[in-house]
Amino acid sequence: MIKRLLLLLKVAFVATACQTGNNQGDTARFIIKGQLDNASNLEIHLQELTTSELLPVDSFITDTTGVFYFRGRIDEAGYYVLRVDPNNFITLVIEPGEEISIAGDASELAKTVTIEGSPGSSLLAGLNRRLMENYRKVDSLAELFRESQYSQDFVQVRELIDSAYHEVFTEQQDYVKKFIRKNSSSLASIIALYQYFGNQLILNENEHFEYFELLSRTLSEIYPTNRHVLDLSRRVSRYKRNEARRRIAQESLAIGSEAPEIILPDPDGEMVSLSSLRGKYVLLDFWASWCAPCRDGNRQLSVIYEKYRDHGFEIYAVSLDRNRDQWLQGIEEDRIDWIQVSDLRFWTSPVVSLYDIERLPYAILIGPDGCIMQKDITPGELEKLLEEVFEDHQSFSTS
What we know:
By secondary structure, the chain is an alpha+beta fold. The protein folds into three domains: 26-117, Type VI secretion system, lipoprotein SciN (Immunoglobulin-like, Sandwich), CATH 2.60.40.4150; 156-250; 263-389, Glutaredoxin (3-Layer(aba) Sandwich), CATH 3.40.30.10. It has eleven helices and 17 strands. Helix 3 packs antiparallel against helix 4, helix 6 packs antiparallel against helix 7 and helix 8 (292-308) runs parallel beside helix 11 (379-389). The longest helix has 30 residues, at 119-148. The protein is elongated. The termini are far apart. 24% of the residues are buried.
């Protein structure tokens, strides 16, 4: 009897040791299981959402009652998409070791899903539900727009619709901000940080950088090697560097400051410096042949240039083109006969950061002393200013 008891204890000890060993060696596994309505023999796809693309992982099929079970392995926490069809899916935040239970209606998975066993995935489900609620409000506004667009009071109705849309957007934005502050230790908040409302980012770095920085700081302590956290950290660091450069550029571009030097080749390959035009009023004009507003501006500048070129006015135009033939074609089509230069490096040209250019067209007026007189000047403003500058010129005619 004693021998039998010892044998049973030994077997139990070995079984327990083996089970413990298997768990310790299988911490990278995860399980997705559950039951969906309207999902008899339904194929479900699992995809990984990386920092740059969506990659297929595997697929599985439910049984006749909609029950499914999938086991996988991951080295680190990440984002995954569980997809029924192209427009019917949910996003999961899967941590190694999680056993995720999912229920809902397969025909409307995102609207009906409930998730257990994955805190991050549950948070994302709530985030997505709030987004869909506000989308439904926007759909109602769109329907009202369609019904009223031929009515006599359409202008007033449109203003009300625009105001209502702004309220809905602001509501979603406030929700996302609170979500991130409350869940700053969850990877789900990175998805919230990059969430769109229609085609508009809900949060952006220029206006809401504090949320990017908060998540980067908090999540880096919890997930120091996670690729998504590292990607966010790089983005935050890059933004800080760019902001520092922008501040330096803005200081150097203050009104009354000397315009930074530019030396670039003209269409014939001859190097032309901005400083070579000292003694003249110079419009430093940034443009590109692919920029429609720039081309319209060229036509306006042609009139101004013809009027003041003999009175000490010059244009030094820097193109942000990347194709030489298109640049030259633009010059020919717009009949440009003022100074043209370009390094054909598009937005990577050093002049972009040197002059803090964020959009085209962009122009700066430089005085005879080489100092900045006015930034972001329009053709209309330029003509008015030049008229004042040259009004006492003996050869200038106001006729």
